[in-house]
Amino acid sequence: MTVFSKQPMTSRTLTVNQFQPAYKRLLLPVCLIALLATDSTRDLVVNSLSDAFWAVSTYVAFTLVVYHYLSAFISSENKLASLYRNSRHYQVFFAALLGALPGCGGAIVVTTQFVSGRVGFGAIVAVLTSTMGDAAFLLLASQPDVGLGVVALGVVVGWLTGCLVNALHADDFLRPPTPSLSVAQDPASCDQQPTENEQKAINVQGEFWRWIMLPTLAVALLGSFQVDVNALLSLPEMTIEWAGTVMIVGSMLLWSLTREIKDYQSTVSEDNKPLASHPFQKAAQDTNFITAWVIVGFLAFELITHFAQINITQSLSGWGIWMPFLGMMVGLLPGCGPQILVTSLYLSGAVPMSAQLSNAISNDGDALFPAIAMAPKAALVATFYSALPALVVGYGYYWIFE
């Protein structure tokens, strides 16, 4: 008789088994394929995914490629950088400008510099107030005029808020007494490095976007000018729509294999990117992250409207005076994912501009994660300070224009 030895089942074993499979991001492309295979949802999903790819992902990818190429040629050692470090008043202004950079890089830089003692508390409030995180890429790519206006408004509000905070607090207000230098220099260093298979997926998605960038951008531009690309190229009806659907599902499959979801931060924040990565590789990682949240927003909007027969735009408009407050509250959540969702709903017409503005001002993006890790008290107080001007701006726009 065969005897099986029983190994003690520890809490670690239970935890590992409970959350398998590791790559939970695969749920998104699997759900997309299932919806495409279902007759009742196929047409709706194809149109939604096609719009997400041609009207959002392609423009976001192009914007990110340009941004990362420019970033590679900008040196941090110059007179402006010296002025930023040595002047208390200029720190706030330049911190607001850094926060206005699309993405979370500028905000993370100022956050780590506050912990290491190189900038004051007013600078961290200014940068967290002005930053929009990755949602800025989405808004700039979809509605450039609105995006530039919101970014410019964020700079002004961040600068004024930082100046006010400077008048109230000293530079070392709530600064940790003994910051960890290694973490302050590189907040991403504590995150697990990609495995060999994950790195291969990262490399492939970089190549994927490098090869399709120009042709997809051309098609997207034609579509923006209301040109029927199928008719122009003598293609069967819905060819371009299906092409966009296939490419967006393919990009989501690649994205799902580049990182494991372990906690809230790994779900709502963009992937860490080594400084030595190629601009196309960085752009691909950010584009696919933004696209994933856009898909969630677009499909949730369309599927609820279709099956529940609920007009989300009218339903949310019934909230009226509460919308700027809700936008601000979502902005307090760390990470860029929830903020991209708000911007997606704004672009679809479900969320008014007042809610978009309050969310943009209160939104701290991924910069809040290293801030909470290195200086939790300063992060919470700075977030509170950024919420106050968010309410002022959101409700100011609501009462004047809406």
From TrEMBL:
Transmembrane segments: 52-71, 92-115, 121-141, 148-168, 239-257, 289-308, 320-347, 378-400
Keyword list, A-Z: Membrane, Transmembrane, Transmembrane helix
Any single Pfam family the record assigns to this protein: ArsP_2
InterPro entries: ArsP_2
Record-linked NCBIfam families: arsenic_eff (NF037962)
Name used for this protein in its record: Manganese transporter 11 TMS
Organism of origin: Vibrio hippocampi
